[in-house]
Design a protein that fits this description.
Layout lengths: L12 H62 L18 E3 L6 H4 E3 L7 E4 L4 E2 L5 E14 L5 E2 L5 E11 L5 E11 L10
């Protein structure tokens, strides 16, 4: 009697390869989405941090301007200049908002390159012993002419520009810039009315 061949049960090599490919796609696709989500979240975090660091510099300069008003109010002659300690020649400088004395809060950047901000993992500033961050904040200020360009002589308006740069990856350098005008709203020792 002749035996009939019974069909073999199980996966063929092609079926196995198709199954492995489908499982690989099912695992790789969510992992890729998770990786992109983490990258986007990191970028958003750094973007928000850079906005607050830039705004902090403007608020610190506004505070210095307003502190000058107290000096003017206490002086019989109306001196000093309301923008006195703020560099206004459009050269780069840094400001440490934690410090209340303008002489120690404002420091010119040497060679046009400002140092990176530092942190103690709670505050940002410039303090020896603190860890460097990947953020660099550059502040510039100049008096405004009526046509909007920088003036060499004192006027009633000071434009403050802040740029925060950070390294977002091995190649990408991101920047965030903000500017605001500070006004001379009291009579001071600058001979500006």
């Amino acid at each position: 009697m002749k035996k009939e061949k019974t069909p073999q049960k199980g996966f063929t090599l092609i079926e196995t390869l198709v199954a492995v490919a489908l499982l690989s796609i099912a695992v790789v696709a969510p992992m890729s989405l998770a990786s992109k989500s983490l990258s986007s979240a990191r970028y958003a975090r750094d973007q928000i941090t850079s906005f607050y660091l830039a705004q902090e510099a403007i608020e610190a300069l506004r505070s210095i301007r307003d502190a000058q008003i107290l000096l003017i109010a206490q002086s019989a002659s109306g001196a000093p200049d309301i923008f006195g300690p703020i560099p206004h020649d459009n050269s780069p400088f840094i400001i440490d908002a934690r410090k209340t004395d303008p002489g120690s809060a404002i420091t010119p950047c040497s060679g046009g390159a400002c140092p990176p901000l530092q942190t103690n993992h709670s505050l940002y500033g410039y303090e020896s012993g603190w860890e460097n961050t990947h953020f660099t904040r550059t502040v510039r200020a100049c008096f405004i002419q009526s046509n909007g360009s920088c003036a060499s002589a004192a006027t009633g308006e000071l434009r403050v520009s802040v740029t925060v740069e950070w390294q977002a990856g091995p190649i990408q350098k991101r920047t965030f810039s903000i500017s605001e005008n500070l006004y001379r709203w009291v009579v001071d020792g600058s001979a500006q009315e």
